Amino acid sequence: MLKRALWRCLAFGLFITTLAMPDVASPAFDLSAGFRGGGSETPLAQGGYITYTVKQGDTLSGIAARYGVSTATLIALNGLRNADAIRIGQTLRIPAGGSNPPAPAPAVVPGREGPSSALLPDSEAVYSPAFIDFDIAAFARRYGGYLATYSEKVEGETMTGAQIVQIVAERFSVGPRALLVVLEMHGGWVTGSPSTARQRDYPMDVTDTKHKGLYYQMWYAANYMNAGYYGKLQGRLSAMQLEDGGYVRFAAGVNPGTAAVQNMLARTTSYGDWLSQLDTFSATYQRFFGDPFATAITPLAPVDLKQPLLRMPFEDGRVWYYTGGAHGAWADGSSWGAVDFAPSGGPGGCAVSAEWEVAAAGGRIAQVEHGRVMLNLDGSDFQGKGWTLMYMHVASRQRAPVGTYLFMGDRIGHPSCEGGYSQATHMHVARMYNGQWLPVGGSVPFNLGGWQFKGGASEYDGSMTRGDVTRPAINGHVDRLNALRGELGPEIQALINQSP
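-> C-alpha coordinates emitted (500 positions)
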Protein backbone atom coordinates (compact mmCIF):
# COMPACT_ATOMS: atom_id res chain seq x y z
CA MET A 1 0.00 0.00 0.00
CA LEU A 2 1.18 3.55 -0.73
CA LYS A 3 1.67 4.61 2.90
CA ARG A 4 -1.56 6.52 2.37
CA ALA A 5 -2.00 7.72 5.94
CA LEU A 6 1.34 9.53 5.98
CA TRP A 7 0.71 10.90 2.52
CA ARG A 8 -2.68 12.41 3.35
CA CYS A 9 -1.53 13.68 6.73
CA LEU A 10 1.66 15.34 5.59
CA ALA A 11 1.48 15.97 1.84
CA PHE A 12 -0.75 18.98 2.32
CA GLY A 13 1.73 21.48 3.69
CA LEU A 14 4.73 19.21 4.13
CA PHE A 15 5.12 16.25 1.80
CA ILE A 16 4.52 14.81 -1.66
CA THR A 17 2.10 12.91 -3.81
CA THR A 18 4.68 10.74 -5.57
CA LEU A 19 6.84 8.37 -3.58
CA ALA A 20 8.94 7.02 -6.44
CA MET A 21 12.41 8.55 -6.25
CA PRO A 22 14.52 8.96 -9.36
CA ASP A 23 18.25 8.56 -9.28
CA VAL A 24 19.41 12.01 -8.14
CA ALA A 25 23.09 11.27 -7.93
CA SER A 26 25.26 14.00 -9.45
CA PRO A 27 25.46 13.37 -13.21
CA ALA A 28 28.72 13.40 -15.08
CA PHE A 29 28.36 17.03 -16.07
CA ASP A 30 30.80 18.78 -18.34
CA LEU A 31 31.61 22.48 -18.64
CA SER A 32 30.42 22.89 -22.22
CA ALA A 33 27.55 25.16 -21.16
CA GLY A 34 29.90 27.80 -19.81
CA PHE A 35 28.57 30.95 -18.22
CA ARG A 36 28.38 34.63 -18.85
CA GLY A 37 30.66 36.85 -16.87
CA GLY A 38 29.98 40.10 -15.08
CA GLY A 39 29.14 43.54 -16.38
CA SER A 40 31.82 45.84 -17.72
CA GLU A 41 32.84 49.37 -16.88
CA THR A 42 34.52 51.96 -19.07
CA PRO A 43 35.92 55.28 -17.88
CA LEU A 44 34.84 58.45 -19.64
CA ALA A 45 37.08 61.47 -19.89
CA GLN A 46 34.24 63.96 -20.16
CA GLY A 47 31.63 64.85 -17.57
CA GLY A 48 33.15 62.98 -14.64
CA TYR A 49 31.30 59.72 -15.38
CA ILE A 50 32.13 56.12 -16.02
CA THR A 51 29.81 53.77 -17.86
CA TYR A 52 28.65 50.36 -16.66
CA THR A 53 27.08 47.65 -18.81
CA VAL A 54 24.25 45.82 -17.06
CA LYS A 55 24.61 42.06 -16.71
CA GLN A 56 22.05 39.38 -15.87
CA GLY A 57 21.19 39.47 -12.17
CA ASP A 58 22.11 43.13 -11.69
CA THR A 59 19.80 45.42 -9.76
CA LEU A 60 20.01 49.18 -9.77
CA SER A 61 20.32 49.24 -5.98
CA GLY A 62 23.18 46.74 -6.14
CA ILE A 63 25.02 48.79 -8.77
CA ALA A 64 24.44 51.95 -6.72
CA ALA A 65 25.85 50.32 -3.58
CA ARG A 66 28.85 49.02 -5.49
CA TYR A 67 29.80 52.51 -6.64
CA GLY A 68 28.80 54.41 -3.52
CA VAL A 69 25.97 56.41 -5.07
CA SER A 70 22.25 56.47 -4.40
CA THR A 71 19.68 54.60 -6.46
CA ALA A 72 17.85 57.91 -6.96
CA THR A 73 21.01 59.41 -8.48
CA LEU A 74 21.25 56.61 -11.05
CA ILE A 75 17.55 56.88 -11.88
CA ALA A 76 17.83 60.63 -12.47
CA LEU A 77 21.16 60.50 -14.29
CA ASN A 78 20.02 57.82 -16.71
CA GLY A 79 16.42 58.95 -17.21
CA LEU A 80 15.00 55.67 -15.90
CA ARG A 81 11.32 55.10 -15.29
CA ASN A 82 11.96 53.38 -11.96
CA ALA A 83 14.50 51.23 -10.15
CA ASP A 84 13.42 48.13 -12.09
CA ALA A 85 13.77 49.72 -15.54
CA ILE A 86 17.18 48.34 -16.50
CA ARG A 87 17.95 45.59 -18.98
CA ILE A 88 20.86 43.31 -19.75
CA GLY A 89 23.36 45.05 -22.03
CA GLN A 90 22.13 48.54 -21.14
CA THR A 91 24.84 51.15 -20.55
CA LEU A 92 24.47 53.23 -17.40
CA ARG A 93 26.29 56.44 -16.53
CA ILE A 94 27.75 56.48 -13.01
CA PRO A 95 29.34 59.50 -11.29
CA ALA A 96 33.11 58.92 -11.36
CA GLY A 97 33.95 59.36 -7.72
CA GLY A 98 36.47 56.53 -8.13
CA SER A 99 35.52 53.00 -9.20
CA ASN A 100 34.18 50.73 -6.50
CA PRO A 101 34.43 53.16 -3.55
CA PRO A 102 33.00 51.91 -0.26
CA ALA A 103 29.41 52.97 0.25
CA PRO A 104 29.45 55.99 2.57
CA ALA A 105 27.83 55.78 5.97
CA PRO A 106 24.71 57.95 6.38
CA ALA A 107 25.59 61.51 7.32
CA VAL A 108 23.55 61.53 10.52
CA VAL A 109 23.23 64.98 12.07
CA PRO A 110 24.39 64.76 15.73
CA GLY A 111 21.47 64.85 18.11
CA ARG A 112 18.86 64.53 15.35
CA GLU A 113 16.90 61.44 16.19
CA GLY A 114 13.38 60.49 15.24
CA PRO A 115 10.63 60.25 17.83
CA SER A 116 10.23 57.00 19.69
CA SER A 117 6.42 57.12 19.98
CA ALA A 118 4.79 54.19 18.22
CA LEU A 119 2.67 54.89 15.14
CA LEU A 120 1.75 51.41 13.93
CA PRO A 121 2.12 47.84 15.15
CA ASP A 122 4.06 45.57 12.81
CA SER A 123 0.88 43.76 11.79
CA GLU A 124 -0.48 47.02 10.31
CA ALA A 125 2.66 47.76 8.30
CA VAL A 126 2.72 44.43 6.45
CA TYR A 127 -0.12 42.66 4.65
CA SER A 128 -0.87 40.45 7.63
CA PRO A 129 -3.97 38.56 8.84
CA ALA A 130 -5.16 41.93 10.18
CA PHE A 131 -6.38 42.65 6.63
CA ILE A 132 -8.29 39.46 5.88
CA ASP A 133 -11.66 41.22 6.05
CA PHE A 134 -10.56 44.68 4.91
CA ASP A 135 -12.36 45.72 1.70
CA ILE A 136 -10.53 48.63 0.05
CA ALA A 137 -13.28 49.26 -2.53
CA ALA A 138 -15.96 49.43 0.17
CA PHE A 139 -13.79 51.82 2.19
CA ALA A 140 -13.39 54.10 -0.84
CA ARG A 141 -17.12 54.04 -1.59
CA ARG A 142 -17.96 54.91 2.01
CA TYR A 143 -16.14 58.24 1.76
CA GLY A 144 -17.05 58.90 -1.88
CA GLY A 145 -13.89 60.80 -2.77
CA TYR A 146 -11.75 60.89 -5.88
CA LEU A 147 -10.36 57.41 -5.17
CA ALA A 148 -13.82 55.83 -5.50
CA THR A 149 -14.17 56.85 -9.17
CA TYR A 150 -10.53 56.89 -10.26
CA SER A 151 -9.12 54.52 -12.86
CA GLU A 152 -5.72 54.14 -14.52
CA LYS A 153 -4.07 51.78 -16.99
CA VAL A 154 -1.52 49.55 -15.24
CA GLU A 155 0.54 47.03 -17.23
CA GLY A 156 -1.96 47.13 -20.08
CA GLU A 157 -5.03 46.71 -17.86
CA THR A 158 -7.44 49.41 -16.71
CA MET A 159 -7.67 49.27 -12.93
CA THR A 160 -9.80 51.18 -10.44
CA GLY A 161 -8.18 53.18 -7.67
CA ALA A 162 -9.11 50.53 -5.12
CA GLN A 163 -7.63 47.79 -7.31
CA ILE A 164 -4.36 49.71 -7.56
CA VAL A 165 -4.10 50.06 -3.79
CA GLN A 166 -4.92 46.36 -3.48
CA ILE A 167 -2.34 45.16 -6.00
CA VAL A 168 0.41 47.30 -4.48
CA ALA A 169 -0.42 46.03 -0.99
CA GLU A 170 -0.33 42.42 -2.20
CA ARG A 171 2.82 42.68 -4.31
CA PHE A 172 4.89 44.51 -1.70
CA SER A 173 3.04 42.88 1.21
CA VAL A 174 2.44 46.20 2.96
CA GLY A 175 -0.57 47.37 4.95
CA PRO A 176 -3.11 49.13 2.70
CA ARG A 177 -4.57 51.21 5.53
CA ALA A 178 -1.26 53.07 5.92
CA LEU A 179 -1.18 53.72 2.16
CA LEU A 180 -4.73 55.10 2.25
CA VAL A 181 -3.89 57.42 5.13
CA VAL A 182 -0.95 58.93 3.23
CA LEU A 183 -3.09 59.21 0.09
CA GLU A 184 -5.56 61.32 2.06
CA MET A 185 -2.81 63.36 3.73
CA HIS A 186 -1.05 64.38 0.54
CA GLY A 187 -3.73 64.20 -2.12
CA GLY A 188 -7.09 64.41 -0.36
CA TRP A 189 -8.20 61.46 -2.49
CA VAL A 190 -10.26 59.54 0.08
CA THR A 191 -12.74 62.13 1.37
CA GLY A 192 -12.54 64.71 -1.41
CA SER A 193 -10.78 65.51 -4.65
CA PRO A 194 -7.28 66.79 -5.39
CA SER A 195 -7.36 70.60 -5.47
CA THR A 196 -4.14 71.07 -7.44
CA ALA A 197 -2.42 69.38 -10.37
CA ARG A 198 0.34 68.30 -7.99
CA GLN A 199 -2.13 66.49 -5.72
CA ARG A 200 -3.63 64.80 -8.77
CA ASP A 201 -0.35 63.75 -10.38
CA TYR A 202 1.70 63.06 -7.24
CA PRO A 203 -0.86 61.86 -4.67
CA MET A 204 1.78 60.24 -2.43
CA ASP A 205 4.03 63.33 -2.72
CA VAL A 206 6.79 61.47 -4.59
CA THR A 207 7.79 64.28 -6.96
CA ASP A 208 9.17 62.76 -10.12
CA THR A 209 7.88 63.73 -13.55
CA LYS A 210 8.44 60.18 -14.82
CA HIS A 211 6.27 58.67 -12.09
CA LYS A 212 2.92 60.40 -12.19
CA GLY A 213 -0.30 58.60 -11.35
CA LEU A 214 -1.53 56.47 -8.50
CA TYR A 215 0.23 53.20 -9.32
CA TYR A 216 3.77 54.54 -9.51
CA GLN A 217 3.21 56.82 -6.54
CA MET A 218 1.94 53.89 -4.47
CA TRP A 219 4.82 51.75 -5.77
CA TYR A 220 7.42 54.12 -4.36
CA ALA A 221 5.58 54.69 -1.08
CA ALA A 222 5.27 50.93 -0.50
CA ASN A 223 8.94 50.39 -1.30
CA TYR A 224 9.92 53.12 1.17
CA MET A 225 7.71 51.44 3.78
CA ASN A 226 9.44 48.13 3.25
CA ALA A 227 12.89 49.73 3.33
CA GLY A 228 12.12 51.20 6.75
CA TYR A 229 10.43 48.07 8.06
CA TYR A 230 13.06 45.50 7.06
CA GLY A 231 15.92 47.93 7.56
CA LYS A 232 14.89 48.27 11.20
CA LEU A 233 13.85 44.64 11.68
CA GLN A 234 17.08 43.20 10.29
CA GLY A 235 19.44 45.90 11.54
CA ARG A 236 20.59 47.02 8.10
CA LEU A 237 19.29 50.59 8.35
CA SER A 238 20.05 52.93 11.25
CA ALA A 239 18.82 56.20 9.77
CA MET A 240 16.28 57.47 7.26
CA GLN A 241 17.03 59.90 4.47
CA LEU A 242 15.07 63.12 4.07
CA GLU A 243 14.17 64.69 0.75
CA ASP A 244 16.96 67.26 1.12
CA GLY A 245 19.59 64.53 1.58
CA GLY A 246 19.91 64.84 5.35
CA TYR A 247 19.51 61.89 7.71
CA VAL A 248 17.63 61.21 10.92
CA ARG A 249 18.44 58.31 13.20
CA PHE A 250 15.77 55.82 14.14
CA ALA A 251 15.05 55.93 17.86
CA ALA A 252 16.55 52.88 19.52
CA GLY A 253 13.29 51.33 20.67
CA VAL A 254 11.09 52.10 17.69
CA ASN A 255 9.31 49.05 16.25
CA PRO A 256 9.60 48.09 12.54
CA GLY A 257 6.01 49.10 11.79
CA THR A 258 6.64 52.61 13.03
CA ALA A 259 9.99 52.74 11.21
CA ALA A 260 8.12 51.88 7.99
CA VAL A 261 5.86 54.94 8.29
CA GLN A 262 8.67 57.22 9.43
CA ASN A 263 10.85 56.24 6.47
CA MET A 264 8.01 56.56 3.94
CA LEU A 265 7.19 60.09 5.05
CA ALA A 266 10.83 61.17 5.48
CA ARG A 267 11.68 60.50 1.83
CA THR A 268 9.33 63.22 0.59
CA THR A 269 9.84 66.11 3.03
CA SER A 270 12.16 68.19 5.24
CA TYR A 271 12.84 67.53 8.90
CA GLY A 272 10.42 70.08 10.33
CA ASP A 273 7.58 69.11 8.02
CA TRP A 274 8.30 65.44 8.65
CA LEU A 275 7.68 65.78 12.39
CA SER A 276 4.38 67.50 11.65
CA GLN A 277 3.41 64.81 9.14
CA LEU A 278 3.97 62.07 11.70
CA ASP A 279 1.33 63.73 13.90
CA THR A 280 -0.99 64.13 10.93
CA PHE A 281 -0.57 60.48 10.00
CA SER A 282 -1.51 59.36 13.51
CA ALA A 283 -4.56 61.63 13.65
CA THR A 284 -5.77 60.63 10.17
CA TYR A 285 -5.34 56.94 10.93
CA GLN A 286 -7.34 57.29 14.15
CA ARG A 287 -10.08 59.16 12.29
CA PHE A 288 -10.43 56.47 9.62
CA PHE A 289 -9.71 53.26 11.52
CA GLY A 290 -9.46 53.92 15.26
CA ASP A 291 -6.61 52.76 17.47
CA PRO A 292 -4.18 50.69 15.33
CA PHE A 293 -2.89 48.85 18.40
CA ALA A 294 -6.33 47.66 19.52
CA THR A 295 -6.25 44.73 17.08
CA ALA A 296 -2.49 44.26 16.76
CA ILE A 297 -1.19 40.74 16.12
CA THR A 298 1.70 40.26 18.52
CA PRO A 299 4.10 38.74 17.83
CA LEU A 300 3.69 38.69 14.07
CA ALA A 301 6.15 35.78 13.87
CA PRO A 302 6.90 33.64 16.95
CA VAL A 303 10.48 33.60 18.19
CA ASP A 304 10.65 29.82 17.70
CA LEU A 305 9.29 29.90 14.13
CA LYS A 306 10.45 26.94 12.04
CA GLN A 307 10.12 26.52 8.30
CA PRO A 308 8.06 23.50 7.20
CA LEU A 309 9.87 20.91 5.12
CA LEU A 310 10.07 21.98 1.48
CA ARG A 311 11.16 20.00 -1.56
CA MET A 312 13.02 21.44 -4.55
CA PRO A 313 10.50 23.51 -6.56
CA PHE A 314 11.02 21.67 -9.85
CA GLU A 315 10.23 18.14 -10.99
CA ASP A 316 12.19 15.09 -9.88
CA GLY A 317 15.31 14.43 -11.88
CA ARG A 318 15.06 17.58 -13.99
CA VAL A 319 18.18 19.76 -14.19
CA TRP A 320 17.94 23.43 -13.20
CA TYR A 321 20.57 26.01 -12.25
CA TYR A 322 20.98 28.14 -9.14
CA THR A 323 21.37 31.56 -10.78
CA GLY A 324 20.45 34.11 -8.13
CA GLY A 325 21.43 34.29 -4.48
CA ALA A 326 19.59 36.25 -1.80
CA HIS A 327 17.90 39.37 -3.17
CA GLY A 328 14.78 41.43 -2.67
CA ALA A 329 11.58 39.42 -2.43
CA TRP A 330 9.72 42.31 -4.09
CA ALA A 331 11.80 45.32 -5.19
CA ASP A 332 14.87 46.56 -3.36
CA GLY A 333 13.17 47.78 -0.18
CA SER A 334 12.01 44.35 0.94
CA SER A 335 13.87 41.62 2.78
CA TRP A 336 16.55 39.77 0.82
CA GLY A 337 14.28 36.77 0.82
CA ALA A 338 14.30 35.45 -2.74
CA VAL A 339 16.48 33.03 -4.70
CA ASP A 340 16.41 32.32 -8.44
CA PHE A 341 16.60 29.13 -10.52
CA ALA A 342 16.82 28.84 -14.31
CA PRO A 343 15.70 25.80 -16.29
CA SER A 344 17.92 23.89 -18.69
CA GLY A 345 18.10 25.14 -22.22
CA GLY A 346 20.80 27.78 -22.05
CA PRO A 347 20.95 31.13 -20.27
CA GLY A 348 19.33 34.20 -21.73
CA GLY A 349 16.12 34.77 -23.64
CA CYS A 350 12.54 35.00 -22.50
CA ALA A 351 10.86 32.04 -24.20
CA VAL A 352 8.42 30.14 -21.99
CA SER A 353 10.19 26.99 -20.84
CA ALA A 354 8.71 23.52 -21.19
CA GLU A 355 9.99 22.72 -17.68
CA TRP A 356 7.56 22.70 -14.77
CA GLU A 357 7.69 24.53 -11.47
CA VAL A 358 6.11 22.45 -8.72
CA ALA A 359 4.69 23.00 -5.26
CA ALA A 360 7.49 22.83 -2.70
CA ALA A 361 4.81 21.96 -0.15
CA GLY A 362 1.09 21.32 -0.21
CA GLY A 363 -1.28 24.27 -0.05
CA ARG A 364 -3.83 26.41 -1.79
CA ILE A 365 -3.14 28.97 -4.51
CA ALA A 366 -4.32 32.18 -2.88
CA GLN A 367 -3.41 34.65 -5.62
CA VAL A 368 -2.38 34.66 -9.28
CA GLU A 369 -1.63 37.75 -11.37
CA HIS A 370 0.98 38.97 -13.87
CA GLY A 371 3.37 36.07 -13.35
CA ARG A 372 2.94 35.99 -9.55
CA VAL A 373 1.62 32.86 -7.83
CA MET A 374 1.07 32.83 -4.06
CA LEU A 375 0.88 29.33 -2.57
CA ASN A 376 -0.52 29.43 0.97
CA LEU A 377 0.61 26.40 2.95
CA ASP A 378 -2.21 26.79 5.49
CA GLY A 379 -4.83 26.29 2.79
CA SER A 380 -6.08 29.87 3.17
CA ASP A 381 -7.32 32.07 0.33
CA PHE A 382 -5.48 35.01 1.92
CA GLN A 383 -1.78 35.30 1.10
CA GLY A 384 -0.85 37.00 4.38
CA LYS A 385 -1.96 34.21 6.71
CA GLY A 386 0.65 31.78 7.99
CA TRP A 387 3.24 30.37 5.59
CA THR A 388 3.13 31.42 1.94
CA LEU A 389 5.53 30.78 -0.94
CA MET A 390 5.73 33.25 -3.82
CA TYR A 391 6.60 31.96 -7.30
CA MET A 392 7.36 34.79 -9.70
CA HIS A 393 7.58 34.91 -13.53
CA VAL A 394 5.18 31.97 -13.97
CA ALA A 395 3.78 31.94 -17.52
CA SER A 396 0.02 32.29 -17.87
CA ARG A 397 -0.14 29.25 -20.17
CA GLN A 398 -1.02 26.08 -18.20
CA ARG A 399 -0.68 27.94 -14.89
CA ALA A 400 -2.67 26.56 -11.96
CA PRO A 401 -5.60 28.90 -11.21
CA VAL A 402 -6.57 30.65 -7.99
CA GLY A 403 -8.22 28.34 -5.47
CA THR A 404 -6.42 25.20 -6.63
CA TYR A 405 -5.34 22.86 -3.84
CA LEU A 406 -1.96 21.28 -4.51
CA PHE A 407 -0.02 18.46 -2.95
CA MET A 408 3.74 18.68 -2.69
CA GLY A 409 5.18 18.04 -6.14
CA ASP A 410 2.06 19.07 -8.07
CA ARG A 411 2.65 21.28 -11.08
CA ILE A 412 2.20 25.06 -10.78
CA GLY A 413 3.29 26.34 -14.18
CA HIS A 414 6.18 27.13 -16.51
CA PRO A 415 9.01 29.62 -15.91
CA SER A 416 9.12 32.68 -18.14
CA CYS A 417 9.82 36.42 -17.97
CA GLU A 418 6.18 37.25 -17.26
CA GLY A 419 5.54 39.81 -14.54
CA GLY A 420 7.91 42.12 -12.71
CA TYR A 421 11.35 42.72 -14.18
CA SER A 422 13.14 39.89 -15.95
CA GLN A 423 15.52 39.62 -18.87
CA ALA A 424 15.79 35.82 -18.91
CA THR A 425 13.44 32.93 -18.22
CA HIS A 426 13.72 31.86 -14.58
CA MET A 427 11.91 31.11 -11.34
CA HIS A 428 12.02 33.63 -8.47
CA VAL A 429 10.85 32.10 -5.19
CA ALA A 430 10.47 33.69 -1.75
CA ARG A 431 8.80 32.98 1.60
CA MET A 432 6.62 34.99 3.93
CA TYR A 433 4.99 34.30 7.28
CA ASN A 434 1.88 36.28 8.28
CA GLY A 435 2.72 38.70 5.48
CA GLN A 436 6.28 39.37 6.59
CA TRP A 437 8.99 38.55 4.03
CA LEU A 438 11.60 36.25 5.53
CA PRO A 439 15.29 36.66 4.73
CA VAL A 440 17.16 33.80 3.09
CA GLY A 441 19.42 33.38 6.12
CA GLY A 442 18.89 34.38 9.71
CA SER A 443 17.07 32.45 12.41
CA VAL A 444 14.71 30.74 9.92
CA PRO A 445 17.00 29.80 7.02
CA PHE A 446 15.56 29.01 3.61
CA ASN A 447 15.77 25.26 3.05
CA LEU A 448 14.70 23.49 -0.13
CA GLY A 449 15.19 19.73 -0.40
CA GLY A 450 17.76 19.83 2.41
CA TRP A 451 19.78 22.59 0.71
CA GLN A 452 20.24 25.51 3.07
CA PHE A 453 20.70 28.93 1.50
CA LYS A 454 23.00 31.71 2.60
CA GLY A 455 23.18 35.26 1.27
CA GLY A 456 26.28 37.14 0.19
CA ALA A 457 27.65 40.64 0.65
CA SER A 458 25.50 42.02 -2.16
CA GLU A 459 22.22 41.13 -3.79
CA TYR A 460 22.22 37.98 -5.95
CA ASP A 461 25.39 36.68 -4.30
CA GLY A 462 25.15 33.60 -2.10
CA SER A 463 25.41 29.86 -1.86
CA MET A 464 23.44 26.74 -0.99
CA THR A 465 24.85 23.91 1.12
CA ARG A 466 23.78 20.35 1.90
CA GLY A 467 26.15 18.23 3.92
CA ASP A 468 29.65 18.84 2.63
CA VAL A 469 28.49 20.06 -0.80
CA THR A 470 28.18 23.78 -1.54
CA ARG A 471 26.93 25.31 -4.76
CA PRO A 472 27.39 29.04 -5.50
CA ALA A 473 24.83 31.26 -7.18
CA ILE A 474 26.21 31.89 -10.66
CA ASN A 475 24.84 34.19 -13.30
CA GLY A 476 24.72 31.46 -15.94
CA HIS A 477 24.73 27.69 -16.46
CA VAL A 478 27.89 25.97 -15.20
CA ASP A 479 27.11 22.29 -14.81
CA ARG A 480 29.78 21.39 -12.26
CA LEU A 481 29.09 24.40 -10.09
CA ASN A 482 25.44 25.46 -9.96
CA ALA A 483 23.46 22.63 -11.61
CA LEU A 484 20.82 20.85 -9.51
CA ARG A 485 18.32 18.07 -9.94
CA GLY A 486 14.74 18.21 -8.73
CA GLU A 487 14.15 16.00 -5.70
CA LEU A 488 12.35 15.65 -2.38
CA GLY A 489 15.46 15.93 -0.25
CA PRO A 490 16.79 13.44 2.31
CA GLU A 491 14.62 14.55 5.26
CA ILE A 492 11.34 14.11 3.42
CA GLN A 493 12.44 10.83 1.83
CA ALA A 494 13.55 9.47 5.20
CA LEU A 495 10.17 10.22 6.76
CA ILE A 496 8.40 8.48 3.90
CA ASN A 497 10.70 5.45 4.18
CA GLN A 498 10.08 5.22 7.95
CA SER A 499 6.30 5.09 7.63
CA PRO A 500 4.64 1.66 7.77
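Confidence is low (pLDDT under 50) at residues 1-10, 14-48, 97-108.
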